[in-house]
What does this fold into?
Amino acid sequence: MERFPPFASLAPAEGTRRPGHSVADATAILHRLAYVKQRLAIAAAAYLPSIPEWEAKCALALHGWLDAEHAEQLYSRIAELREPPPGAKDVPDARLEAALDEMFAAGDTRGRIAAVHGVVRPLFRSAVADYLRGTNPLCDQPSTRVLTAIQHEEEVIGRWGDAAAASVASSPEAIDWTGHLGAWVEAAGGVDGRRPAGNSPPARFSRPYRFAVLPRRDERFAGLFDPSTPADLVYLDETRDADERNAALMFKRLREMDVPELIAGIIAEHWAEERNARPAEPRKWTYYTAMFRQMWDEARHAMLGQALMESRGIDWTTLPVNVTFSWKLARHCSPLERHILLYAIEQSLMPRDRGKPYEHRVAAASGDPLSALFHDFDWADEVLHVDIARRCLKPELPGGLAEARQRADALWSRIAERLAADPLPADGDPRAVRDWWPRFARSVLGRDVAPVPDTDVKNWRPIE
Ligand SMILES: [Fe+2]
Ligand SMILES: [Fe+2]
It folds into this structure.
């Protein structure tokens, strides 16, 4: 008979006989790795609204979702290892917890990038490599599988993170944070806890957990509080040609960066509430994984807008990509109230006459194949988000999603009242352009368009 490779080719025969981690050791190390992934995900949510740079928001949205998934995969693997499994609320080591808390004290982009991509991720990756070298590839194959998949996605994360870390590396902030956080992780015995623990430098972070959730944007952008909403009128205006309505959709996608800003704040503040109050029954980690997925999808939708703009040679950074939505909700609503309003908006996307099916039809009718493709997937994502609301928001409310639908109107009215006393910041940037639609439409379409009636964002309820 033919001779086939032994041991399902997991390893050479002698490799299958090598010693490895015990179940207890494997559980202990994997718990630390899961915990680091949980904390990287939460750091992404905590950073995303207040980090000004657009491209950093895009990367944080992706990395936060991948980290959340990796934490979930690791928690699932630990649950297979016989002992009562630790969950996301369980801290494997108070020193590791304190070291990762220090990430929250980094307030500027350079320090944050150095902390995450210059320190924690490289240490995490070497801890994974050490685990894989130290474990038996046969008896612990399920752990090996999970960690190998994580290694692969860490490479994806590293494509952005290593370049970003290199670009800030020589800044005083990055040098400072690299030394500080490196010393703190070292003091915790390293990511895997297998090195002797040492002394930590003075802490910069102190509990309770509290995050800055008001959105910020980088210096390229003006008109952050632009009060006009022409794209929201134009895309529905059937007296206008489909290509102009498609240009409105391009802008609507681009503006969606305010949705990940909103969701990041919900995630970070819910996590903080739980860690501060330590309830007996905190949310399961699967809640966070689903919310991170939606956060990433919405950032991806903004990038669809960016790609559409760039396909037409438009400098999208000159447009008033405003933050009024994420700003007023972060300012005037609790995280749960924000989630209710997010749900109410997503509900409004389903009708065929103006929601996602309609947007897809407009994009297709405009003769722009890239926009038609993007709106096909955008629609699919939004259907998924209705399901995420069922999984994540429904259990938060005694009356379920019916309660969410009931409360949304009153919440919008309350925001309007609060804005009367505590208004949106005045947009004093001299670069902010009023009446920008005709100019933008001309640059996309190469022709003049009919004027758009005046609108005011104060009375505007977003349709994502
Ligand atoms: Fe979206
Ligand atoms: Fe959505």
